[in-house]
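Data card: per-record layout.
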Amino acid sequence: MTFPLQHAIYLSLALFGLGVVGVFLRRNVITVFMCIELMLNAVNLAFVTFSRMLGALDGQILVFFVMTVAAAEAAVGLAIVIALHRNRDTLDVDAFSTMKW
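The structure for this 101-residue chain is written out next.
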């Protein structure tokens, strides 16, 4: 049983759309970071699908670089969230509109 590659592209598009909607509508910093991770995973799915369609390994190799960047973004982002929470005692995005402490 094979999986139609067009379905993977549609799934990737739906996941990316959910991530964009989450970034624009949510006010919690951690939820925004989760939506960004969702968008990165949607792009990874598209890379793997296009790589499979073309029969090349370039997209699959690029996925490892995107995963590395996503892991670094998660580590640095979580450290920033912890530092902001300690200083402001909130995780609301609107409270972090200025960089002054």
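Known properties of this structure: The mean pLDDT is 87. The two ends are 57 Å apart (CA to CA).

See the next section for split statistics.
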